[in-house]
Amino acid sequence: MASFVGKTKLFTILVLWLSILVSFAQGKERWYYEFKYPFIKRASSFSSQSSSFASKGNDNRFDYIIVGGGTTGCPLAATLSQNFSVLVLERGGVPFSNANVSFLRNFHIALADTSPSSASQAFVSTDGVINARARVLGGGTSINAGFYTRASSRFIKKMGWDEKLVNESFPWIEKQIVHKPVVAPWQKAFRDSLLSVGVSPFNGFTYDHIYGTKVGGTIYDRFGRRHTAAELLATGNPQKLTVLIHATVQKVVFDTTQGKRPKVVGVIFKDENGNQHEAVLSENPDSEVILSSGAIGTPQMLLLSGIGPRDELKKMDIPVVLDNVFVGKGMADNPMNSIFIPSKRPVRQSLIQTVGITKFGVYIEASSGFGQSQDSIHCHHGIMSAEIGQLSTIPPKQRTPEAIQAYIKNKKDLPLEAFRGGFILEKIADPMSTGQITLKSTNVDENPSITFNYFSHPRDLQRCVQGIRMAVKVAQSEHFANYTQYDSPTIEKVLNMSAKANVNFVPRHTNDAKSLEQFCKDTVITIWHYHGGAHVDKVVDAKYKVLGVDRLRVIDGSIFTESPGTNPQATVMMMGRYMGVKILRERLGRRAGI
C-alpha cells in the first residue's frame, strides 16, 4: 500500500513538473514575441480620447490605418512604417503562441475549431461547400497548407505591375519566411506519377510558375514549424507602427458634408471586451484607410460602411455613402475535387510540396497522412476527408443546426486509421464561373451570404473532367502502387471511394462514379483561393483607390479577377510589400530611401 501511495505521489509530482515546464515554455514564447514585436498590443489598450473625430489636434492620429493584419496587411504595414505612422487593426489574436497554428502536424485543428476564438472562421457558401476565412494575425498564411510559389509572368503583366519592383519584392518575403521543403515519400511518388502521365518536364525546386512538374517552397521549416506573414512585421519601424489584436473594425467613417465628395476620416472598431473606439487619420490629404481584410472581409466592410448597391444598403438600413452596384460582385473560388488513395503502409503526413502545372488550365497537387501529436484531435485537415457520412444526403432545408453539429462531432470521433493514405487534388486554374457577396446582417462578426456558382460555366466543368481523368491516371500509376502496396484501382473504385466521402453539403447522385461531370459537381470542395468582390475599374482604380471617395484604398485579393499561380499566398504577400514601396516612392520620391 505504501509503495502504491509513493508511486501516486511521484506521478503527481511529475505531472505538476510537466505542467510547470509547459507553462514556462508558453510563457517564454509569449515573452519572446512581446520582446520582438513590442508594438503588438491588445485592442483594449487603445485610447481614442485624444483622436476622436471631433478633435482637431494631431495627437494619436495616424498616416495609415490598415484594416486587417493578414497576408497583405503585414508586409504593407512593415513597409509603410519606415516613413509614416501606421495602425493595423486585426480582429484575431497572434499566431506565435498558438500550437494549432504553429505546427504542421496540427494543421487540421485550426480549421476544425469552430469556437469564436479560433484562428479560422468557418462558413458554408450557398453552393453547399464548406469553407474558412482567417481570423488571426498573419491571415491565411497562419492557417493554410504552406505551399509557396510565385504568380506567372502573364499574371504580373496582366496586373500592370512593375516587373523590376515585383522581382525585388518576392525575395524580400522569401529571405524572411520561406524554406525549401524536405520532400516527403508521398510527394516523391506523386512527382514520379505526374511525370509518368505526361506532366513534364520536371523543373526541380523552383518558386517560378512553369508548365510541368515542380517542387515549390514552403513556409514550414524543416522542423515543421510555420512561419507566417506576421513575422514580416519585425522589419517595421517600432516607433511608427502599432498593431492592435482583437480589434474588430465596425465600419469606415466618412465626412459627408453636403456638396463634398465623401472623405474618409477614420474607422470605428471594438476591442476584445466589446468597447468601441475611434481611430482617426491625420489631416494630411494623402493619409488613407487601407482595406486588407481579404476577398470576403473587404467587400463586407465596404458594404457595412455604405459603399455598395443602393437597394441592398437601404434594405439593411445602412446610410448610403456611394452607390456602386459592383461591390461584392465577381466573386470566384477555384473549385477543387480530390480522390483518395488508401495505403497498406503508414503514410507520413505531408501537405502540398509538389505540383503539376498542366497546359489545359488545371493544377494537380497532393497531400497525405495525418498529424498525431498529443494536442491533435480526430478529424481530418478539412480540404478533403476520407470519412463516410450522411449529411450530404439530407436536403438543404433539413440541414438543421443540430444536424450540422452532429456532422462536426462525427468528424471528430473518426479513428485515425480512416486516414491511412492520401489525396490527389485537382484544381481549376482560372474559373470562369462567378458569384457574389451580400450582407445577411449589419453584424461584422457574422459571415455574409457568399455564392461562388461552381461549374455554372461549362468550360470549368470541361476542365474538371480533364483534371479528374488525369488525377485517376496518377492514382493508378505504378509509382503509387509500389508505394502504397495496393493494386492499381479501377477508375470506378477510385471515384466511388471519393464520392462517398462527406466533404460538403451537396446532395449526392447515384451515378457519381459513372458520370465525371456529376462527380465534379457533387464532390466539389475548396482550397481557399477565393478572390474578387472589389475589381479594378469597377470598385477601385488602377492604384486600388476606391472610386468615388477620398482616402480609401483596397490592397488584397478582392481586386483579383483570377487567383495568382497555383497557390496565391506568395503573390498576395509580395503585393503588400510592392504596394508599400510604391506608395512611399509616390509620396516621398528619393527621400523614401527604399
Q: Can you offer a commentary on this structure?
A:
The protein is of the alpha/beta class and 594 residues long. The protein is built from 15 helices and 24 strands. It has a domain at 39-47 and 63-179 and 225-329 and 436-448 and 529-593: FAD/NAD(P)-binding domain (3-Layer(bba) Sandwich). Helix content is 30%, strand content 18%. The chain has a six-stranded parallel sheet with strand order 1-10-3-2-14-24. Helix 11 packs across helix 14. The longest helix has 35 residues, at 2-36.
How are the elements arranged and paired?
Elements: H1 2-36, E1 40-42, E2 64-67, H2 73-80, E3 86-90, H3 99-102, H4 107-112, E4 120-124, E5 130-134, E6 147-148, H5 153-159, H6 163-177, H7 185-196, E7 202-205, E8 212-215, E9 217-218, E10 241-245, E11 248-255, E12 263-270, E13 276-280, E14 288-291, H8 294-304, E15 307-308, H9 310-315, E16 322-323, E17 329-331, E18 336-342, E19 354-357, E20 362-368, H10 401-412, E21 421-428, E22 435-438, E23 449-451, H11 458-475, H12 478-484, H13 491-499, H14 516-522, E24 552-554, H15 569-588
Parallel strand pairs: 1-10, 2-3, 2-14, 3-10, 7-8, 14-24, 15-16
Antiparallel strand pairs: 4-5, 6-9, 8-19, 11-12, 12-13, 17-22, 18-21, 19-20, 20-21, 22-23
Helix pairs in contact: 2-15, 6-15, 7-12, 11-14
